[in-house]
Amino acid sequence: LADVSMNVVILIAILRAFIGSKPGHPFIVLKRVLLLSSVSYLGRAMSVPMTMLPSPDMRCVPRLVDGSMFWSVMLMPFGLSHTCADVFYSGHSIPITLSMMFWMDYTASVQERVFGSLLSVMALLIIVCTHFHYTLDVFYGAGLTVIIWRLYHFGLTVPA
Question: Boundaries of each Sphingomyelin synthase-like domain copy (predicted)?
Fold first, then answer.
C-alpha cells in the first residue's frame, strides 16, 4: 500500500506538470525534481549504513538472496529480495515530498495546492500507518527533502 500510494502521488504530479503547462516548462520542472531527488537519495545512501533499525512491522519475514545482505539490498528494487531492516531516512518520503513541493511552488491555484498537499500528506500517513517506516523516518526524510528543495530554489534567486 505504501508503494501504491507513493506511485499514485508521483503519477498525478507528473500528469499535472504536463497538462496545462507552457511548452518546455514541464521539462524544466522535471529536470529540477530529478536533480533534487538525486541529492536527497545521496543523503539517504550515506545514512543507510549508519542507521540500521529493526523493522517497524513485527510480522516481517526476510527473503534474502543466498543469505547475502549485499545482494539482497541490490536486488530489492526489482522485488527479488526483501529485508526486514529499516533505515532512519525514508526513501518513500522523498518523491512524495518532492511532489508536494511541486504542487506548492509550481501551481497557481489554491485548490490545486491544497489538493496536492493533502494527497501527499495522506500518502506519508499511509506509510506510517502501514508500519512501512517509523514516523521519525518519514518526518526526517520529508523535512530534509523540503530543506533541499528550499535551498535549491533560494539559490535560483541569488544573482550570479
Answer: 83-153
Average pLDDT, the chain: 88
Q: What is the DSSP string of the chain?
A: -HHHHHHHHHHHHHHHHHSS--TTHHHHHHHHHHHHHHHHHHHHHHHTTT-EEE-S-TT---B-BTTBHHHHHHHGGGTS-B--EEESS-STHHHHHHHHHHHHHH---HHHHHHHHHHHHHHHHHHHHTTSS-HHHHHHHHHHHHHHHHHHHHHHHS--
8 Å CB contact between 29 and 106: yes
Give the pLDDT of residue 87. Answer: 67
In the chain, domain spans: 2-51+90-157, 57-87
The values of phi and psi at residue 122, to 5°, are -60, -40
pLDDT score for 86: 65
